[in-house]
Amino acid sequence: MSAAPKAAIALLILLALVPPAAAAIGDPFLTVIATRMAVFAIAALSLDLILGYGALVSFGHAAYLGLGAYAVAVCARHGITDLFLQMGAAALAAALFAAVSGAVSLRTRGIYFIMITLAFGQMAYFFFVSLSAYGGDDGTALAARSTLFGRAWLENDTAFFYMVLACLALAYGGLDRLVHARFGRVLTGTRESELRMRAIGYRPFRYRLAAYVLSGMICAVAGVLLANQTEYVSPAYMAWTRSGELIVMLLLGGVGTLAGAMAGALVTVGLEELLAGWSEHWRLCFGLILLAVVLWSPAGLTGLLRRLLAGGRR
């Protein structure tokens, strides 16, 4: 087993130990923070598929997070409260939106792709702002968390955390197999040289579109979990600034490494909580930390760890 899967497994084990540790020290809020870390780790993994392996910088990725969240609200309004049914509805909505927007966006490159994904993301944002039935710009509160097989097991924060952790483990495991399979190798080859991939008989557009759709579906599942954690949905979930935050998580952890995406999400959420409790100007401090990481380790925390391990072997 290579270092990356070992690091991912270590992160999952570390997260799994948070609820018993929180109970031991009498601080249940730690479980809430760990749940938020795991939710955004799933979203970061989904973005890393297209950004890290496909070199597709999307500034509209948070739209899928919002679609997942609103799928919970819409389904609950119509009496569908089962978590897996809501995930299915969210994934279907995200797949349709990604297929349409991706078919247009992927015909462009560079800054044009960034701006078109941003435009689609803002279209989704303003669409939900206009939905007065679901609170418009103010959003809407959920009556309760989703059910599992008709039971309200997820009302317990610890049980909900382990459900989110299981989803994170499945997302990582599935994406890890995908990027190391033929599909992932073609996607990576397209990132390196689209012309060469065409020359040997592949059609990069199909692979990029498939990755784009799959990425949106996984992010929508993260949106379902985010809505359940906060018991609230809002168009703010799909604002372009949220897409920027997901990109920051990848930069901090390491673009193009699934373990790095997980680590970046965990560190970003952890720093937000830590710095926000220390100063109201925490964004300035966070920006300085991000700047230091980018300057001293362009490959993120995973690159820094590799350099430290390589230095230790000499």
Automatic annotation (TrEMBL):
Record-level Gene Ontology MF annotations: branched-chain amino acid transmembrane transporter activity
Quote the subcellular location field of this record: Cell membrane
Per the record, membrane topology reads: Multi-pass membrane protein
- The positions making up the signal sequence are 1-23
**Which InterPro entries does the UniProt record give?**
ABC_transp_permease, LivM-like
Which ranges does the record mark as transmembrane?
33-55, 62-80, 86-104, 111-134, 159-175, 205-226, 246-269, 281-299
Q: Which Pfam families match?
A: BPD_transp_2 (PF02653)
- What cellular-component terms does GO give this entry? plasma membrane
Lineage, uppermost ranks? Bacteria, Pseudomonadati, Pseudomonadota, Alphaproteobacteria, Rhodobacterales
Q: Which PANTHER family match?
A: ABC TRANSPORTER ATP-BINDING PROTEIN, HIGH-AFFINITY BRANCHED-CHAIN AMINO ACID TRANSPORT SYSTEM PERMEASE
Record-given protein name: Branched-chain amino acid ABC transporter permease
Q: Which key words are in the record? A: Cell membrane, Membrane, Signal, Transmembrane, Transmembrane helix
